[in-house]
Amino acid sequence: MENFNFYAPTYFEFGKGAEAETGKLIKRFGGSKVLLHYGGGSIKKNGVYGKVIAALTSADIPFTELGGVCPNPRSGLVYEGIKLAKEEGIDFILAVGGGSVIDSAKAIAAGVRYDGDFLDFYQGRAQIEDALPIGTVLTIAAAGSEGSANSVITDEENKIKKGARSDLLRPRFSVMNPEFTCSLPPYQTAAGATDIFIHVCERYFSNTREVCITDRLCESVMKTILYETPRVLRDPDNYEARANIMWAGMVAHNNICGVGREQDWASHHIEHELSALYDVTHGAGLAVIAPAWMKYVLEKHPEKFVPFATEVWGVPLDTINPMETAMRGIERFEAFLKQIGMPSRFSEIGAKKADIPVMVDKIFAKKETEGFYVKLTPEDVTKIYESVADQ
How far apart are CA 298 and CA 165, in angstroms? Predict the structure, then answer.
């Protein structure tokens, strides 16, 4: 196990009716004038918006609203949010939504306290040294941004999707009521579950040895997603299944499963170019890329794929031919993604083979290799893209 530091200060209010505590939590963590940040109209249709407004009103907290966050959150709205927060003297940001809304809120929080362009943080030109505090009311189990130090934003002008990381971006609190996820469409539920699963894979496929505790944590979270996702797709109002998936999403990405071990992240970075160029739902893009990455690197580095098959998917170990065991695990993963309605090819997400060179160039604009479990070259990533591209 490698040396590590781990700081995860977020306070979680979890369960039915948890949103009623939102106003009290804002005051507890120092907020007095709030920017209420959210996406489209879904929170107004399903009643979440009204409940949050009631909580703010009952706590006598003044707020300014900024809606309009899209999936794969855009730089343009972040700039608007920074300007609005400065003009209104905002001292706390409340994100009501999923990962896109929370990531946008984090970018605004960092940008308000910075004299330059907030994209400096996402393009490696500057480090975050200060940020407004944020809180979240989660409505989608997927990105895990409600407990993480990470934020991902799409630079609209250059069509580049990049991330920033700082413990200053960790929410001060996150309100998590699983009932808020019951109205999600099946496709969005499945895409979120896929994102959660692959967040864990990025940590699980590691070259670090003797990390039994985090190996077992990773396997447990992955098995939870395998068990609960079909249940919730059959019965969208299954509170217990929704609750397990919601907490799994947080555990998958606050990094408790990743401490002390080298992490990969190639699948995410390869997918980010699909999201930036085609506005693909992130989990759906990962469903296309992650199995392709697995099949490509298997021959180069099969070690972690055997326990992935036996411990996560229940594939019997073939002691004579462990590579066969490993391949069966990847096949079961692909079958699971198909079962829950996820895509597997470029044609299903609107991507084009002709754009592969553009995406590869963007990935390697500032680095020579991608990922760590197997360090991929531009030629390797091109082959991964091509393996799922249609003629």
Answer: 29
Other C-beta atoms closer than 10 Å to the C-beta of 98 total: 28
> Can you tell me the distance from the alpha carbon of 61 to that of 281, in angstroms, rounded to the nearest whole number?
34
Q: Contact, 164 vs 82, CB < 8 A?
A: no
Read off the pLDDT band of 391 (50, 70, 90). Answer: low
CA proximity to 100, closest of 128, 123, 71, 120 = 71
Tens digits of residue pLDDT in 61-74: 999 999 999 999 99
What is the gyration radius of the CA atoms in the chain, in angstroms?
Answer: 20
For the chain, what percent of residues have pLDDT higher than 70? 100
Give the C-alpha separation, 290 to 303, whole Å: 17
**284, 75, 71, 255: which is closest to 167 by C-alpha?**
255
Token pair recorded at residue 2: 């490698």
Give me 263's structure tokens: 């992490």
SS3 184: coil
Per the CB < 8 A criterion, the answer to whether 55 and 21 are in contact is yes
